Amino acid sequence: MLIEDRLKELKDKINEKVPAGITVQQVEFEGPELVIYTDDPKRFADEADLIRVLARDLRKRIVVRPTILEDPEKAAVEIRSVVPESSGITDIFFDADTGEVLIEAEKPGVVIGKNGITLRDITRHIGWTPKVVRTPPIESSTVKQVRQYLRVVNEDRKQFLRTIGRRIHRDIISRDEAGNPIKKDQWVRVTTLGCCREVGRAAFLLTTPDSRVLIDCGEKPDNASATPYLYVPEIHPLTQLDAVVLTHAHLDHCALIPLLYKYGYEGPVYSTPPTRDLSAMLQLDYLDVINKEGRKIPYSSNEVKTYIRHSITLNYGSVTDIAPDIKLTFHNAGHILGSAIAHFHVGDGLYNIAFTGDFNYSKSRLFNPAVNQFPRLETLFMESTYGGSNDFQPARSDAEQKLYETINTVLSRGGKVIIPAFAVGRSQEVMLALEEGMRLGKIPQVKIYIDGMIREATAIHTTYPEYLNTDLRNLIFREGHNPFLAECFQQVDSPEIREKVINGDSCVIISTSGMLSGGPIMEYLLNLAEDEKNALVFVGYQADGTLGRRIQKGWREVPMGRKGTITINLEIVTVDGFSGHSDRRQLMNYIGQIQPRPEKIFCIHGDENNTIDLASSIYKRYHIQTHSPMNLETYRMC
Predict the structure, then answer these.
(1) Which pairing describes strands 634-636 and 379-383: parallel, antiparallel, or unpaired?
(2) Reduced 3-state DSSP string for 379-400
(3) Closest CA to 552 of 539, 538, 565
(4) Which of 256, 253, 398, 394 shows the shortest CA–CA distance to 336?
(5) What's the helix, strand, coil split of the chain in %, to 5?
(6) Rounded (10°) CA dihedral 555, 557, 563, 569
(7) Which of 44, 241, 471, 600 has the most C-beta neighbours closer than 10 Å?
(8) Cα–Cα distances in Å, from 84 out to 104, 130, 381, 544?
(9) SS3 category, 430
(10) In terms of Cα–Cα distance, which of 370, 394, 374 is closest to 383?
């Protein structure tokens, strides 16, 4: 069936269901959504359940847009008259091309109203389709720039979404000369393009007879020249990819996504909203670090912009068509802000497969545990970072106590505590623990210096509090205490301030990068490593081959490139328990409690011994077929 015929059929079905008097002018696929254009958006708003009923019956995500728009200045006045002043509206932006009005407010829930009643009132008054976003409590330049850029390229983006929408809903049924459907084979395959028996360069290709979807595309932390196997015939040409799905924003999963656009990819990247913003931030920082180190950059900032322009964001639990025969649903992974388990429903009930990305099956200071219940699940690809038989993490409370004791000891002897941490996730966990420790008198009142992209990443966390756990949201928005804004945290944003910190009094320093693979942490190491009063405290995973792992193993003479070799005299402390990954016990418990239990499990994203050990243990305990795949293998699922 041609797209135009399918749209006409959908329009006829919509007209059958809408009340008399509501005129549907046009329907159009725009990305994964079916957009209904009407002269009567206010009537649609009056029918509170109509859109929900249409979405259920048509099995599509429905958006209603007006064909006749009220004057923006008058509409803005009416919005402010409808929305309570307590919402704290900070900006209103009208997009005439889409008929949407973006309302930025300090309290989005007040703008939305109970069960969306205030949003419907807005539509009744002005006709524009309202969308609400939160005003960041800490201003984020990344969020601001992404939102502004998407406004600028709106017309290009609208055309892109229409192209993608038609591609998603294209006819995939083969027919004979008489127009009768021809039965063809159905199958699902996964090709491993990276991240197998290793940590890093995550990339997996999900294919069916009609679709190709790439899951993640990251760098390898210990080998800058190692990239996913993007040159193999299974993935070429890139123009045949239907979609890229990004599980989360760590560089070993997202760093090389802009490279796809450099090599000819033109399609969408699906992620949660915070993953999009964090990825863009980290990709630009990644280019900056590579450039400063004198290495060849793999792509430019233009490709990062292209990625943003082609991004499509989905919230947890939203079932979305991303290809003619594939639906995607994101579920909380509990790893970092916006991290997601990507669940794919293939065909009309043919097969279900999920990729955990990195996940944490325990509640942290930031996030709820990873989701372990799915409608259906035949195969699971799960990370195995801490899958080894001896990879047990201490309780979070014990880890925090050890961190407090280390800080007290180092400060008492006049030293500095240096904590290398990932900008996203680990830094915020440590910040929350230190703020509470200082507030409760468990550690002295000292300056905690934040260096690198940590401050910006923290601002993005406060932009999306709905992705944080309930306790932290209540602390920030009900009790009015935002621990990220505590006076003890001081931003280092220039070489001059960094030099003062290095030469100044005892303090705590949290800096990127987490594995000592570049960034401002190298300046602190270079200048403070030889003083035995100081301490280097590892709070995160150190991959094999990284400088962090070498120092952790006991190296005392380490090369610093053109800056020569330095002697490591400072104390080396590892504080396990802050990880955003599940340990061996949690990984096994996750499989024991997952519903429904999958038929196959692939153990990935871990050192070779860990993936093999975990796969073997799962098989022995749960009698599930398991694999520890190698890179460049293809598995047929059904």
Answers:
(1) unpaired
(2) EEEEECCCCCCCCCCCCHHHHH
(3) 538
(4) 253
(5) 40, 20, 40
(6) 90
(7) 44
(8) 14, 15, 47, 55
(9) helix
(10) 370
